Amino acid sequence: MLASHPRNPWFPFTVNQTQGRLRLFCFPYAGGGASIFRTWSNQLSPEIEVWPVQLPGRETRLLEPGIAQIEDLVPLIAEALLPHLDKPYAFFGHSMGALVCFELLRQLRRSRGVALPLRLIVSGRRAPHRPDTGPQTYNLSDDEFIAELRRLKGTPEEVLQNTDLLQIVLPTLRADFTLCETYTYRPKEPLTCPITAIGGLEDSEVSRADLAAWNELTTAKDYKMRLLPGDHFFLHQQQAMLLRVIMQDIFSSMARHAQ
């Protein structure tokens, strides 16, 4: 059962912190909030604590401005996360969340005494060093930007048709799209943790080559690529299948860690 902890804005939903052997920190796609993951703890093993991360500008942090540059966002997350890395952990991020996870790990490894996660699970996102060949959309007019949101199918139609609500959420959506579309990859030492890259078989935004390239960013040998039915938002369409994959790969990493 998830419990609310309003005093910590980064973690509005957490499980009993004494039950699990591993913490799974979950990062949402552009425009998404921590509530995407709030039922996951009911479907994953009790050995896995689900810690959805709430980014500024959405849901319980709606009155805060969104952050449009990853260099500004990542240090804030790292500061919030550090006190909670006192047991084995893993990261899951979908789309924008995968990019945030990657840069967050590169930030955390500079912190003395902090171990990297047992596994980085990235979903629906090309590897950061792969070029973005799509057109920029963050600076479109409101009408064009809303049309793009509708095409991507990640924003509920009832939100897109609610003019008052759109005026509230559009700034955060633009900030998220700006973060993704203006991101510049800077080569650094590869990660040392294993990576699982998951994609949708019908996802026109991310190719298999985009997913496979994640393997180039780690020295760990236990890289896995998983393809699930569905488009870019297969994490909703195939949630049960996705969670089985996540659990399988996390348990594999936990077993290796215990050896």
Automatic annotation (TrEMBL):
<dbReference type="InterPro" id="IPR001031">
    <property type="entry name" value="Thioesterase"/>
</dbReference>
<dbReference type="GO" id="GO:0008610">
    <property type="term" value="P:lipid biosynthetic process"/>
</dbReference>
<feature type="domain" description="Thioesterase">
    <location>
        <begin position="23"/>
        <end position="246"/>
    </location>
</feature>
<dbReference type="InterPro" id="IPR012223">
    <property type="entry name" value="TEII"/>
</dbReference>
<dbReference type="InterPro" id="IPR029058">
    <property type="entry name" value="AB_hydrolase_fold"/>
</dbReference>
<protein>
    <recommendedName>
        <fullName>Thioesterase domain-containing protein</fullName>
    </recommendedName>
</protein>
<comment type="similarity">
    <text>Belongs to the thioesterase family.</text>
</comment>
<dbReference type="Pfam" id="PF00975">
    <property type="entry name" value="Thioesterase"/>
</dbReference>
